[in-house]
Specification:
mainly beta
Length: about 120
């Protein structure tokens, strides 16, 4: 967050009016949409790697309106051993800005995945 100082200058028939300087900053308080179409595939030549892919998110929602995300999107990929697992630090595989992730499935029994979208790294 970068604070800036603003001042309004207004010109009218009697001259100019200058407001007092005011300081403030803009906050990103628009949550991004969730991603859709999460897919998993195993290559015929690499059956020890599961490739996850998902749709790109470029917008967020605030009070029912859509706005483009300005500061980037990060995807947090979580994995668990049942479909109702909780997304937290213990289930986090990685955070990425890519739309795909290769997961080594030879040493882990986590078979369920969730992709959580964030506008914070």
């Amino acid at each position: 967050e970068y604070q800036s100082t603003f001042m309004v200058m207004y010109h009218f028939e009697l001259g100019y009016f200058a407001s007092e300087p005011m300081a403030g900053y803009s906050a990103d308080n628009i949550a991004p949409y969730t991603t859709g179409n999460v897919r998993a595939s195993i290559s015929a030549t690499r059956n020890d790697v599961l490739t996850l892919t998902w749709d790109e998110v470029t917008e967020g929602s605030y009070q029912g309106n859509s706005y483009p995300e300005q500061n980037g999107i990060w995807y947090r990929v979580h994995s668990g051993d049942n479909p109702d697992f909780t997304c937290d630090e213990t289930t986090l595989l990685t955070t990425t800005q890519d739309l795909t992730l290769d997961v080594d499935i030879t040493s882990d029994n986590r078979l369920f995945f969730k992709v959580v979208v964030s506008d914070q790294p």
